[in-house]
## 1
Amino acid sequence: MFRRARILVFAIGLVAQRPLGGADWLQWGFDSRHAGLNDQETTIHSGNVSSLHLLYRVTLPAVADGAPTFLGGVTTPQGVKDLLFLTTKSGILLAVDAATGGIVWSKQPATGPNYTTSSPAIDPGRLYVYSYGLDGRAHRYQVGDGTEITTGGWPQPATTKPSVEKGSAALGFATAKSGTTCGSPKSQRGASDGTEPASTRLSRRASEVGQRLSDLRRPVDPVTEKRAAGSRTESDSILESSG
């Protein structure tokens, strides 16, 4: 809809006549399966889809390369609004009035060193929206006014190398049958259950793999390796005898 452009085009004209609080689109692809299908949609159907038209066109403060999320009936300082949330490549999280295209609030936790093509995700409890920052962390904000939450371990690390790794994957979540919600990183409920954030786990695994590859590429000194092997054998013998 606005890929690789500063222009946000809202082409679903029928939404203008729909009341506030429409079906929420909380993450990329709608659900944890990323099916891209909102089965709660009743306004747009095969009989009227041909009547859709351009509702507005808005110039964004920076290029956005990820899909927006939607939350209806949000209480903001300007009143109750339906909001679109999107993250720009420069790391700006925008809360856009879905009816007019006006920017309700924006946040940019860092201006570098890299860029992001990620999409934000909204807490199933409708309290918080999560977005990548260019500082290598995922940030948590109140949906109504953009107040950042900096307690409880937030912002969460997504990479330890923000200068060479960009946050490209869309943030998302899934809710287990037990009711616990975890995501990448964890959402509100997942943050309190002691589970490692998916983004942190992936970053840690990537670092481990990178270290192994680096070890494989490292020149081998036969003398050093022989001494190291001898030290390991000696240490193992000591441990075995002490056990």
Note: The longest helix spans residues 222-242.
## 2
Amino acid sequence: MMHASFVTQPHSLDYATVLMLIVIGSRIDSLERIESSNQSIVSIFALFLGSRRNEKNDKLHLQLQTIDRSTMGILWTAAACLAGLLVIALVTLLLVPIILAQITVWRYAFQRQSQKQQQTRKSWNEFRSALHVGTVWHTRHLPVQHAFRYPLFLFCLDLQEVQDGLFANTLWPLSTIVSFRESDHLKNGEGLQQQQGTGKDTAPAKAKDNDNDNTLQARICRLVAAKTRDKFQPTPATHRIILVTHLCYYGYCFNPVSFYYLQERQTETRAVAAPPRTVAVVAEVSNTPWLEMHCYVLHPDSVDMLAVVAKTQAKDDSSSMNYVFRKTFHVSPFMEMNYNYDWTFSPLETTVPVTTTTPAAAAAVPLRITTAMKTVPKTDADSSRLQFSATMNVHRRGLHPMTQIAWQIISYPAYCLILQIWIHYQAAWIFAKGVTYQPHPNEMADTTASRIIGTIMTPVFLLQDWLQQSKQPPVKERDTKKQV
């Protein structure tokens, strides 16, 4: 029985097992097909999504390329416009002085050839007013060494020739870009007649023949008379006034210092053996950025003077004048007030012989001004130390509009603006070398420019103070254990 059952049961089990295996296999096959179909669907969906993403990426890439191209187009257009404007500006700065100078030469030549004015019209080298070209040196000796030099051109103007129409007539139309404005000088009202006194500089002198004359030369004469307490009373009739200054170039004028030479009038001849004698000098000083102006009257009887010394030059036996006076006007924000000025002026030649026709001959007449600033000794045992010195050395070039004035304007357009940039550039170097900033003694003198500069420089001042404090040696701690 056991054997029979053993024999017969396996057959039944095998059929059941086979049937079960067939069912399970079919299920597995269907599951695999479903899984493979699902994978294919997923892959197709992923491919679809990828294609959609690629389409979006391509569109985005095309948009970015379009934006980049448009931006580059705008940038290239702006650069081309800027380059075009720069070329136009350079061509304008080059051609405008030449055209105006040539018109001025033709116009003056036509006026000279007229019969009525043939005897009175001068050649360009016969004017007392002239362009001067040279170099200026600045040297700071204390507390740090700092020196520089730069090219310089300025004008020596006979104020009588200016009043007679030097710029309004003779140099027109060049005078539209190179002009002289009386409003740029004596801004505090010095020497004005019938003025309510605002200070000792503006007190008018006693009544003279120029009472109702408020021209620049008459005001200078009254200023000199007031500063010398009427001991010296020049007038435009007795003294010629030569102003050494920068003009207004393209509408902008800035003068760190201008000098008025008061010279005794001589017989009006074209050949003079010696330079006219200079009897006084007025120094008109400006400061930056406070935009103030102050006048020192340099004359033996002036209230500004400490000492006046005449020095003889061995070469031509002409005498230069040396003036020593106290500093009473704040100029540089890196210098204190406790100093004496020591200035020396060489003779100023304002006439050229009639045989002088070339610029080289006219350039042989030099003008040299040397300035020094020395510390004031605190006691009799102390000696003054040289703090600062500067030298201006220029040569006469005549007044020809084309060969002289136009050439300088082309070489240094807007020279006064360039001068301002040079001043601030050197001030930055001085500050970087550790020189202490000196604020204006009068807090009411602040201007918009000075406040802006002060605001910008405040972090720099704090950094400088921190660096100076960090360089100081540490203070030794006190012994707290010391017995009382």
Note: The first strand starts at residue 130 and ends at 140.
## 3
Amino acid sequence: MATQTAAQRKAAARKAAATRKRNATARRAKNTKAAAKRTASSTRVTASTSTSAAKGTATSAERTAESGLAAGAATLNVVAAQAERAVLIPVGAALVARDNLVEAAKPYTRGRDSAQRRVQTDIRKFERRGTTARNRFQREVKRTRTRVERELRQRRNQVTRLVRRNRREAERQVKAARREVRSQVERVQDQVTSLA
């Protein structure tokens, strides 16, 4: 069985860490979506007991929450595409490097010692170039991930604030409707009592 080089172990560890982070992000998005649905559901139940104006408020809150979640899902698709690129680019680079290495090794097959030194020098040069490209790509992915996470947090906070505001408004309208009904009931009871 072939042993892994330090670079290969490091690459495998980074890949595993990226997979764990993607999975954690997906779980957080799923939990956020479920919480938004529960909030929308409780808003619908509260709104159904109030006047038609309260129903309209709850419906608009639900639509806003769903549109925010759809935007979050679209952002997750962008992250998935970036992750796929992260896998495909190193594979393509490795194949191009292998082809270049085979072509570069052909003239050196005559003198073994000097050819071996040249091949090792070229391999080190290719490895350094590959490391530079990998580091550049990782920085780009990290910047993109940070931006996407920031946008998701901002959108989630906006939706949460909107749902809270709409819920408070719906509850206010329900209380007002209850007070109005109670006052009318008491008025009717007073009139019935005065007639009797």
Note: The chain has a mean pLDDT of 79.
## 4
Amino acid sequence: MSALAEQHERWVGARERLYSGKHVAAPKAQRPRPVSPFVVDTLARREAAKKAREEAIAWLRKHPPHWSAIVKQVAKKHGLKSSDLLGPARFKKIVAARNEAYYRLRTEITVNRAPLSFPMIAKRFKKDHSSVLHGFYKHAALVGDTNEVIHSINRSHRERLTLRSFEVARGSEPLQTLE
């Protein structure tokens, strides 16, 4: 047999073994790759957060916030109906009562140990959160609760106030700011 015929025989035999299915070896079992500690930690945190969220929702369903009771108390104090506070009217008496309601809701109700947020209060009153923010600050200043007002002012405004007071104490003219 010639070398070419031998080589052809080997190729035919190899092709038969490959495509016949008789001698096909099972694929090797792959070892599972180790999971990084970062992935395990992230998954554990996600599970813990999900569990905490579900517990908070269950607790809130059992103990709903009493925001409507505060609105009713404020309305009664001012001789109004709660629907007046929740409505769109802008009479001075109603606005003053509404501002008090914003203030009381923010300072008296907590959700997960945090005060009720301005957007959440705004949603209850069908207002914009900036209107609630303004009413809250206005009532806090009226009551004389400067501590609450100072801590609620955002950081950049606080820095601007600090810069002004520093310049005034130094005896120079305060910087002009856009307001």
Note: The chain has nine helices and two strands.
